[in-house]
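Need BCCT family transporter's 3D structure for a figure. Predict it.
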Amino acid sequence: MTDETPQGIPEPEGPVELIETDYEIGQDNVEGSVGPFGFDVHNPVFLISGLSIVLFVFYALVFREQATEAFGALRPWLTSTFNWFFLGAANIFVLFCLVLIVTPWGSVRLGGQDATPDYSYAGWFAMLFAAGMGIGLMFFGVLEPVYHMAISEPLGVPSPIAEDGTIIEANVEAAKRMGLAATIYHWGLHPWAIYAVVALALALFSFNKGLPLTIRSAFYPIFGERVWGWTGHVIDTLAVFATLFGLATSLGFGAQQANAGLEHVFGVPNNVEVQVVLITLITVVALVSVLRGLDGGVKVLSEINMVMAAVLLLFVLLVGPTLVILSDFGAGLVTYVGDLVAFSNPINRVDTDYMNGWTAFYWAWWISWSPFVGMFIARVSRGRTVREFLICVLIIPSLVCVLWMAVFGGAAIEQVLADPVNSPVKAQVIDSYNPPLSLFAMLEGLPLSGLTSTLGIILVIVFFVTSSDSGSLVIDTITAGGKVDAPVPQRVFWCTFEGAVAIVLLLGGGLTALQAMVISTGLPFTIILLLMCVAIGKGLASEPR
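Structure prediction for BCCT family transporter:
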C-alpha cells in the first residue's frame, strides 16, 4: 500500500514531475457541522452550484407550464445551431487519444513509474461499464439499430419496409448494415474518447502532479495559479452543472424504462407519477450505497450488474438467430469503418435529422457525463500507463458496446423483418415510437420473456443506483475542493438532488426536457474539454517515461 495525503489521494510512487504550488487542498473550504452532520465544502463552488440547482428545482416545479415550453424550444435550437461544433470537437478528441497511444508519451505511468494498479482488470472493467453507459445501453440497445434500419432514407439507403408493411427484399441487407453502422458510430470511439480525455487529465494532474482531484487542476499548465481563483471556480461550477444534468437525463431514461418494464411484466401503470415514485425509491437505495462507500457500494453493485448483463447478452445471442447476428455484427462494423468519415463530417450534411436529432444530442450527453465518468475512471485507474489506459478505456469498451448493440439490435431487426405486421418491436419503435418499451418488446419475441424482462428491469435499476452513487461521489469531490474524504452527508445531499432534478425534468417536459438540459450544459463544457487536450500535452511532456 502507498502513503496517502490527508485528502485520501495516494502519493506518487517513483519519479514524477510534481507541480510546485503554494495552494493546499481544502484551503478555501468552509468546515463545520449542523447538529450531528459535518460539512467541508469549497467556497464558492459549493454555494453557487448548490444554490443554482435548488433554484432550478424550485422554478421547474412552480412554473411548470413555462418550463415545459422553454425546454421544448431549447433542444432543437441548440442542436441545429451548434451541431458543427459538437461533431468537430468529438473528432478532435478521437484523434488526440489515438495519437497519444502511438507516441512515447504513452509509456508514462499514472501514479509514478513504480505505481501498481489498484484494481484487477475484472474489477476495473466492471466499474467502468456500470458507471459509463449502463442505462444508455439498456435504453437504446434495441431502439436505435431498429430505428435507423427502418428509417434509413435520411442516411442514403432505401428503407426495407414498404408503406403497406411488406418487406422489400432488395433493400434489406443495405438497410441492416446502415442501421448497425449508424448506431455503432454513437457508441464506439467518439464517446469513449470524450471520457478518456477527462479521465486522463484528472489522473495525470492528481496522481503525478500532486494537485487536487478536481477539474480545475488540469488547467494549471494553461492558467497557472489563476486556477485557484475565479477561473477555476467557473471551470468547476460548469463541471458540476454538466455532471448533474447529464446524470439527471440518464436517471430519467432509466425511470421511464423501468416503468415500461413493470407495466409490461406486472401491469404497473405507466405514467409520470409512477416514475417519480421509482426515482424516489431508487434514490433511497443509492443513498444506502453511498453510505457503504466506493468498495462496499459501487464496486460490489457494478460487478453484480456486469454478471447479470453478460447473462442477458449471452441469452439473447444464443436464443436469437446467432449466426445472423454475428454476421450482421461484422457487416455493420465494416460499414461503420467505411462510413466513419461521412458520419463524422460536420458540414454540408444532407442527413440533418440524423445529425441534429441523434448525433448532436449524443455528443452533448457524453460531454455532460464526462466530468462524472472521467473522474470516476481516474479514481480507479492509478498504476496504468497512458497507453494501457487509453487502449482499455477507448478501444476495448467500444467493441463491447458495439457487440451489445449488435446482439440486441440485431435480434430485434430480425424479428421486425420476419413479421413486420405483427412484430411488437415494430409497433413500439416505428409505429408508435415508444423508446422505453423497445427492449421488452424484443424480449417478448424470445423464450422466457417474463424472466428476461424481469432481469432487464433489475439491470436498469442497478445501473440507476451505481450511476447515482458514482455521480454523487464525483460532484461532492468537485464541490469539496478536491477532497475525496469529505463528510458523507455532502454526498447524501448531491445524491438526493440528482433524483430531484430528474423528477422536475420529467414533470417539466419528459424526454424533451431531459435532452434540452443535457445539451445546454454540454455546450460550454465542450470548450473546457478542448482546452484540456492542450493541458494534457503540456503535462505529459514534462513527465519521466
